[in-house]
UniProtKB/TrEMBL annotation:
Protein name as catalogued: Tat pathway signal sequence domain protein
Single annotated GO MF: primary methylamine oxidase activity
Organism placement in taxonomy: Bacteria, Bacillati, Actinomycetota, Actinomycetes, Kitasatosporales
Bias type Low complexity, positions: 38-60
One example of a Gene Ontology biological process annotation: amine metabolic process
Length: 272
């Protein structure tokens, strides 16, 4: 009798273990597959199609699962580590003080300078050798109010702007906003008619927005190359001027190399 009982118990235990293995396998498969409903957040953590009423009721009371985000970046870096996102935001906020914002203009003529870059500042050899070297950021701007290139140095430890350098005639590469504004000015000018015609020929659609083009901008200075250019570009270098290389998004190039957009004066000129 005892032997029969043990055999029955072994068979029952075998079913339990096998059932658990099947459930584990099914769970692994479900984890590995992302369903459209789950991605939209419309599906909860309910059981499968054959779940019991009790299981479905329990699942309905559970909170929907969430995708865990990547760990947040630390507020500050150390040594010569690249600036963290928090450090960049802090440096930009400190550099663009109220007085600077009110007295400057961006590429579209709005209050506040056009921010170009935010980088870790260089240190002196003595500072590099220090046990705890300071962390400073350099934030660069172009001020369209008076055509100046401005560099603000921010001490991230003290939270103070330690140096401001203002230069004229310095023309770093344009940022994306400046390139898009140059495209907009070109589209609005009569010299942009060829661009719009070529776009229409290539796509069958009208060119109405700058983002319909993939554009790259390069700084232009008067007298570059063998062609001194027309009188309309003689201020380029003191003014912020760019030449555009444009193409249809995912399509052919459209030659605009002979056109110069003066972002400071909001004009367009043709070379040659």
């Amino acid at each position: 009798m005892g032997e029969d009982v043990r055999k029955l118990m072994h068979r029952h235990l075998g079913k339990v273990v096998a059932g658990a293995a099947v459930a584990t396998t099914a769970t692994a498969v479900l984890i590995g597959v992302t369903l459209p409903g789950s991605a939209s957040g419309e599906e909860g953590s309910s059981g499968g199609p054959q779940s019991s009423s009790a299981e479905q009721g329990q699942a309905a009371r559970q909170q929907p699962g969430v995708v865990e985000e990547a760990p947040e970046q630390g507020e500050t870096g150390s040594g010569r580590d690249p600036l963290t996102d928090d450090e960049m935001k802090r440096a930009q906020g400190l550099a663009a003080g109220r007085d600077f914002r009110m007295s400057s203009e961006d590429v579209k003529g709005a209050s506040g300078p056009e921010r170009l870059s935010t980088d870790l500042a260089e240190l002196s050899p003595e500072e590099v050798a220090a046990a705890d070297p300071p962390r400073r950021a350099e934030v660069t701007y172009y001020d369209y109010k008076d055509d100046t290139y401005v560099t603000k140095t921010v001490d991230l430890g003290s939270g103070k702007v330690t140096d401001t350098d203002t230069q004229r005639g310095v023309q770093p590469p344009p940022n994306r906003d400046e390139v898009m504004e140059a495209v907009r000015l070109l589209m609005a000018d009569k010299l942009g008619e060829g661009l719009k015609k070529d776009f229409k020929d290539a796509t069958g659609k009208a060119l109405t927005r700058p983002d319909q083009l993939a554009a790259t901008g390069f700084v232009y200075r008067a007298g570059e190359g063998s062609n001194p250019g027309p009188a309309a570009v003689q201020d380029c270098g003191e003014h912020r001027c760019v030449r555009l290389f444009t193409r249809v998004v995912n399509g052919p190039w459209i030659d605009t190399r002979q056109l110069v957009v003066d972002l400071s004066a909001h004009t367009v000129a043709k070379l040659g």
